[in-house]
C-alpha cells in the first residue's frame, strides 16, 4: 500500500521539470534500549521522470544515511625511546558519527570524483572538516585512519549494489544499524543520477534515541553531572568493597 501511495504521489507531481523523488523510511524513529542488538532500516521510494515515463532504467539511485556530526581528535602513536606514545594529532570539526552509502551501481561508474566529493557519495568522500594547520599528506593519512577505524566498528559502510530498482519505478535500500549506533538525528538523502549528474535529491529524517533506563542514565549524566559523578564513584567503591568481601570468604 505504501509503495502504491508513492507512485500515486509521484504522478500528481508530474508537472515538475526535473525528475521526481518520493522517499520513505521504514522507521522514522529507532529506540535504543537495554539489550539492543541493532536493527535494519528500509529506505524506499519512487522515481518518475518529467514526462511521466518509468525512469528507473535511466537513473541510478544513491542513498546516504548520515548520523549527527561531532568534533574528534585523531592521534598517531610512535615509538619514542622504546615506548609507544601518542605523537602527532589531527582535529576534525564535523566527523559524522555514522555514515552509510548504498547505490544501484559502484559510485565510480555513476559519477566522477568531483561530483562524488560534492555530495559525499561514498566513504572516500566524507567531508571531515579538518581544523588547524597540518600537512595535506598527513591530513589525508589521519582522515583515512578515522574512516578505517569506524569501518571496523561498523559505523561507516558502503554497499555498491545496495539499491534495488524494481519495475523501473520503485527503489529500495536496506542499511543495518549496529548495536553501538550513536543516538541523535539522522538524515537519509536520496539522489537520482543520470549521465553523471545529480538530477534530483530528497531528504528523510530518522531519530535514533535511547529509551528506558539508558535514557535516564544519559539525561542524569548531562543534567546533574556532579551528582551523577559522585554516585558513580560511590557505586564503584561499593562494588569494590563487595568484591573484596567475597574474595575474603573464599
Key phrases:
250 residues, alpha+beta, Immunoglobulin-like, six-stranded mixed sheet, 6 helices, 13 strands, disordered N terminus
Quick recap of the structure?
The protein is of the alpha+beta class and 250 residues long.
Please specify the SSE layout and strand pairing.
Elements: H1 2-12, E1 20-25, E2 29-32, E3 39-48, E4 60-66, E5 69-80, E6 83-96, E7 99-103, H2 107-110, H3 113-119, E8 130-131, H4 136-152, E9 156-159, E10 163-166, E11 170-177, E12 184-194, E13 197-210, H5 213-223, H6 225-249
Parallel strand pairs: 2-13, 7-9
Antiparallel strand pairs: 1-3, 3-11, 4-7, 4-12, 5-6, 6-8, 10-11, 12-13
Helix pairs in contact: 5-6
Q: Examine the coordinates and then state which fold CATH places here, giving the name of the CATH topology of the largest domain.
A: Immunoglobulin-like
Shape: globular
Along the chain, the helix and strand elements come as: HEEEEEEEHHEHEEEEEHH
Biggest sheet strand line-up: 2-13-12-4-7-9
Q: Termini, distance in Å?
A: 64 Å
Largest sheet: 6 strands, mixed
Q: Regarding CATH, which class of the largest domain?
A: Mainly Beta
Question: Taking Cα atoms only, what radius of gyration do you get, to the nearest Å?
Answer: 23 Å
Backbone structural class:
alpha+beta
* CATH homology superfamily of the largest domain: Macroglobulin (MG2) domain
Strand content: 35-45%
The total count of helices amounts to: 6
Average pLDDT works out at 80
Sequence stretches where pLDDT stays below 50 over 5 or more residues: 3-15
Amino acid at each position: 500500500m505504501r509503495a502504491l501511495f508513492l507512485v500515486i504521489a509521484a504522478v500528481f507531481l508530474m508537472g515538475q521539470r526535473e525528475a521526481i523523488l518520493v522517499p520513505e523510511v521504514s522507521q522514522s524513529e529507532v529506540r535504543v534500549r537495554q539489550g539492543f542488538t541493532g536493527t535494519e532500516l528500509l529506505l524506499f521510494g519512487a522515481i518518475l521522470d518529467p514526462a511521466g515515463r518509468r525512469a528507473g532504467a535511466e537513473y541510478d539511485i544513491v542513498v546516504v544515511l548520515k548520523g549527527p556530526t561531532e568534533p574528534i581528535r585523531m592521534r598517531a602513536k610512535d615509538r619514542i625511546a622504546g615506548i609507544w606514545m601518542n605523537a602527532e594529532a589531527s582535529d576534525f570539526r564535523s566527523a559524522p558519527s555514522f555514515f552509510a552509502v548504498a547505490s544501484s551501481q559502484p559510485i565510480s561508474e555513476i559519477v566522477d570524483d568531483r561530483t562524488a566529493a560534492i555530495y559525499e557519495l561514498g566513504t572516500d568522500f566524507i567531508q571531515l572538516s579538518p581544523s588547524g594547520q597540518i600537512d595535506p599528506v598527513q591530513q589525508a593519512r589521519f582522515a583515512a585512519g578515522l574512516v578505517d577505524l569506524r569501518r571496523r566498528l561498523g559505523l561507516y559502510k558502503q554497499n555498491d549494489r545496495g539499491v534495488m530498482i524494481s519495475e523501473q519505478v520503485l527503489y529500495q535500500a536496506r542499511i543495518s544499524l549496529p548495536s553501538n549506533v550513536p543516538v541523535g538525528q539522522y538524515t537519509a538523502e536520496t539522489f537520482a543520477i543520470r549521465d553523471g549528474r545529480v538530477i534530483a535529491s530528497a531528504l528523510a529524517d530518522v531519530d535514533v534515541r535511547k529509551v528506558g533506563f539508558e535514557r535516564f542514565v544519559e539525561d542524569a549524566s548531562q543534567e546533574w553531572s556532579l551528582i551523577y559523578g559522585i554516585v558513580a564513584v560511590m557505586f564503584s567503591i561499593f562494588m569494590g568493597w563487595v568484591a573484596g568481601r567475597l574474595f575474603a570468604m573464599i
